[in-house]
């Protein structure tokens, strides 16, 4: 290819990239002062507030039911508090791992200052520019590896309890994504010297702000409403209790003894999986509300962070592509800016979208693998395979039949969460209850071989319409 041809090709790629950037930016505005959708709905609609009250009443009724059951059966009350204590066991070690990641992440700023000094030297001696760029990229990758290496090694060496390990792994990924955002924004500044670097105060603010996109300025509110902060933190505590209560009340009765017997009837497994559908989807909704609404709004209020659009109205959509964009705008925006947009001009939209799904699904599965202590890629299959397939399948049909496909999406949420809340506990308790074996492995599910799943002895299918024939 001639030099002009190469130049024209680069120009075309650049133009395509700019077009993709502009089209994507039309959908997502820059940061602005705005409330979360549920905040607006709860304040403006008595119907939505009534649904909120229904969830609170369901929790209260379930608590009363469990209290009565415990008093009648054993004379004591146990409403999930033991699950919370066990789930966040060894919390001191978890805090140490989090503090390590925080310290390593904070070290990025002085390293950035040093790199800016080196960049200033490279501007005087352009021959050193490529070496300085290589040094910066290598140093940043080493810092990212340092953030991830110790938590991964420590969780692999000695497993933390589920709640503590989820918190540690999620914070590990959050710090790594924050560093990518600020490095991509400030790295070129060190080399060009045209724009000043952020102050350390702003760097600290970004590391705790409820966003993964770096900006030199964010819209800020005028004051902190401490009543709002306390209310949202109480919601977080209540939802943690709610999920632990669901685990103890609906999951453990079916799966806590899984693996203690050599055989288990297939009918019991199927019944248990269907019994987990409702608690699974309730946990799914509560988890969404806890993390993407209550927790992020509490931090936004404390930091006077004005933009609270952490999600959009995903529950009304009929297309999986919109669901993935709206469900978690915080992570989606990071994936869009740091993976999809840089790749799309060169690889095409389809491949860039696939890479985004692949990276996201792998990250989600790593969180679960490090948290549970085993690799069981159920979520990877549901999210990274079936989810990808549903994106083109619902692209056109979802527009033509929005009501029908919204119903189908919710059916998928119910079934998918029921499967998740069945297979992961089955594997979790199988590894606890089944006797050790030389074939035990982090990557091979133990629940496939222990216990043995059998049909009920002398089981036969009875025709449910036989009574009508008899009459």
TrEMBL record:
Compartment(s) where it occurs, according to its Swiss-Prot or TrEMBL record: Endoplasmic reticulum membrane
What family is this protein classified in?
Belongs to the membrane-bound acyltransferase family. Sterol o-acyltransferase subfamily.
Q: What is this protein called?
A: O-acyltransferase
Superkingdom, taxonomy of origin: Eukaryota
Q: Which Pfam families match?
A: MBOAT (PF03062)
Q: What positions constitute the catalytic site? A: 364
Please tell me the species this chain comes from: Mythimna separata (Oriental armyworm)
**Keywords recorded for this protein, A-Z:** Acyltransferase, Endoplasmic reticulum, Membrane, Transferase, Transmembrane, Transmembrane helix
One term under GO cellular component: endoplasmic reticulum membrane
Q: What is the lineage of its organism?
A: Eukaryota, Metazoa, Ecdysozoa, Arthropoda, Hexapoda
The processes (GO biological process) annotated in the record are: cholesterol metabolic process
Q: Name one GO molecular function term.
A: O-acyltransferase activity
Q: How does the UniProt record describe the way this protein sits in the membrane?
A: Multi-pass membrane protein
């Amino acid at each position: 290819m001639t030099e002009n041809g190469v130049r024209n090709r680069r120009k075309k790629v650049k133009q395509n990239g700019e077009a993709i950037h502009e089209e994507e930016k039309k959908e997502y505005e820059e940061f602005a002062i705005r409330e979360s959708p549920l905040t607006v709905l709860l304040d403006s609609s008595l119907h939505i507030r009534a649904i909120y009250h229904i969830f609170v009443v369901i929790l209260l009724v379930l608590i009363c039911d469990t209290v009565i059951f415990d008093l009648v059966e054993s004379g004591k009350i146990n409403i999930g508090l033991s699950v919370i204590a066990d789930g966040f066991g060894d919390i001191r070690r978890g805090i140490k791992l989090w503090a390590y990641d925080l310290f390593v992440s904070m070290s990025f700023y002085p390293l950035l200052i040093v790199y800016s000094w080196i960049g200033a030297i490279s501007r005087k001696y352009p021959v050193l520019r490529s070496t300085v760029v290589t040094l910066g990229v290598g140093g940043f990758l080493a810092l990212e590896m340092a953030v991830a290496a110790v938590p991964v090694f420590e969780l692999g060496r000695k497993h933390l309890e589920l709640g503590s390990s989820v918190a540690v792994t999620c914070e590990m990924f959050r710090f790594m994504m924050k560093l990518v955002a600020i490095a991509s924004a400030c790295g070129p500044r060190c080399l060009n010297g045209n724009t000043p670097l952020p102050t350390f105060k702003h760097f600290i603010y970004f590391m705790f702000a409820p966003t993964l996109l770096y900006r030199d300025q964010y819209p800020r509110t005028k004051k902190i409403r401490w009543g709002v902060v306390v209310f949202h933190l109480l919601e977080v505590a209540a939802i943690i209790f709610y999920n632990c209560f669901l685990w103890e009340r609906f999951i453990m009765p079916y799966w806590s003894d899984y693996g203690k017997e050599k055989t288990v009837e297939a009918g019991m497994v199927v019944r248990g999986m269907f019994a987990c559908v409702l608690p699974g989807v309730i946990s799914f909704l509560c988890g969404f509300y806890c993390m993407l609404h209550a927790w992020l709004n509490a931090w936004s209020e404390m930091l006077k962070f004005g933009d609270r659009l952490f999600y959009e109205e995903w529950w009304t959509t009929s297309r999986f592509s919109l669901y993935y964009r709206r469900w978690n705008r915080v992570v989606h925006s990071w994936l869009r800016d740091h993976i999809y947009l840089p790749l799309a001009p060169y690889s095409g939209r389809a491949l860039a979208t696939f890479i985004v799904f692949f990276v996201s699904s792998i990250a989600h599965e790593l969180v679960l693998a490090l948290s549970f202590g085993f690799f069981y890629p159920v979520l990877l299959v549901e999210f990274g395979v079936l989810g990808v397939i549903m994106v083109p399948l619902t692209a056109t049909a979802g527009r033509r039949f929005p009501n029908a496909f919204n119903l189908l999406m919710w059916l998928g949420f119910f079934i998918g969460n029921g499967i998740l809340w069945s297979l992961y506990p089955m594997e979790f308790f199988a590894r606890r209850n089944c006797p050790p074996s030389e074939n035990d492995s982090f990557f091979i599910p133990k629940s496939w071989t222990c216990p043995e799943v059998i049909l009920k002895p002398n089981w036969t299918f009875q025709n449910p319409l036989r009574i009508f024939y008899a009459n």
